[in-house]
Design brief:
The chain contains eight helices and 13 strands. The protein is of the alpha+beta class. The relative contact order is 0.12.
């Protein structure tokens, strides 16, 4: 894509890790920025904003963040910077952003971003184009209750802690805003990103500020979890189901299968925790795992019960219990899967 090639070819300046706080943005420079704001007498200054995601690397469920590489372009017109063609040169067209008025835009939900470069160019007619490229972590709340059948919305939020919506208006540049065709995110599918402008109220400051939100909906590929997590769990549960088909007098096969199923499930649970998100609520997969553990434990309890019944010469009750559970156990397993995955 032409845009991606253009971004990749842009020169890089010294790398600076962004450490953004509210105190950094609300400072004495605000008065100067307000005084020099273009077209202040005509109302809000329009600033075109476009955000293009070059690559998306990883979604970290535990840290509620994602790693992303993206390019932002701000474009506005400043009549104070109009120059004649005779005075226009490459040196005069390139400016330091701090030397001119700018919307003081910041990545609101950044966690650990590195600014790879920043370039600001002023056209003879006063049009200012500021391009910035970032790479790093951006925080985004994730709702994992449907994990691993979940869909998430990843957001990059741009906001100015200097200007209100009455002073500056962000306008979405739909031509630039988008997502690269090929990204490094193997376990998720992506939709077409959307962007919208608006305002955000900061309760601590009792003020509203202009903002721009980039949203990308992603859906998790479930094949890995079905084949590597859910299917092995079902097989372990079905292994414990075999105890209902042995005569009550055959103690060793029943005990061996029940204990093996319990130990397999415990071992599998320890391994599984390394790949599951650690959240304070139960996900869909958590509910299924807990239900599977309960069924395997109940099969062990039934094994002990039938053995005791056989010992006291009540073998007919043990056989009746086995016959009932041959039907009840699969029904419970089916109900568990239905309630966990579809309800």
């Amino acid at each position: 894509m032409q845009l991606k090639n253009l971004v990749a070819a842009l020169p890089k300046t010294s790398t600076v890790t962004a450490k953004i706080t509210i105190e950094d943005d609300i400072n004495p420079a605000r008065e100067l920025l307000v005084q020099e704001r273009p077209f202040s007498e005509q109302g809000a200054t329009e600033v075109s904003v476009g955000l293009y995601v070059i690559d998306l690397f990883k979604i970290d469920e535990a840290r509620q963040s994602f790693e992303v590489d993206f390019f932002i372009e701000f474009r506005w017109k400043d009549p104070h910077l109009v120059m004649s063609q005779s005075h226009c040169s490459i040196a005069s067209c390139r400016k330091n952003l701090d030397e001119i008025w700018h919307p003081a835009a910041r990545i609101f939900n950044q966690r650990n971003l590195t600014k790879n470069f920043e370039t600001t160019v002023v056209a003879p007619d006063g049009t200012v184009v500021c391009g910035q490229r970032f790479h790093g972590l951006v925080s985004s709340p994730l709702n994992l209750k449907r994990f691993p059948f979940d869909e998430q919305t990843l957001r990059i939020q741009i906001m100015s802690f200097v200007f209100s919506p009455d002073e500056v208006q962000f306008v979405v540049n739909h031509h630039l805003t988008g997502l690269a065709e090929e990204i490094s995110l193997p376990n998720w599918s992506t939709n077409i990103p959307v962007a919208h402008n608006g305002s955000r109220h900061i309760a601590q400051l009792n003020q509203s500020f202009v903002c721009f939100d980039y949203e990308l909906k992603v859906k998790r590929y479930t094949a890995y979890y079905i084949t590597r997590v859910i299917l092995p769990l079902i097989l372990i549960v079905l292994m414990s189901y075999a105890v209902f088909w042995f005569p009550p007098g055959q103690i060793m096969p029943q005990v061996t299968i029940s204990v093996t199923a319990i130990l397999s499930l415990i071992t599998y649970e320890f391994t599984l925790q390394q790949s599951l998100p650690q959240v304070p609520y139960l996900t869909v997969l958590d509910k299924f795992v807990i239900g599977a553990m309960v069924l395997v434990f109940l099969a062990l309890v039934e094994t002990v019960t039938t053995i005791e019944l056989a010992e006291v010469k009540l073998q007919f009750l043990a056989l009746d219990l086995d016959n009932w559970l041959r039907w009840i156990f699969p029904a419970f397993l089916t109900g568990l899967a239905a309630s966990a995955f579809w309800l």
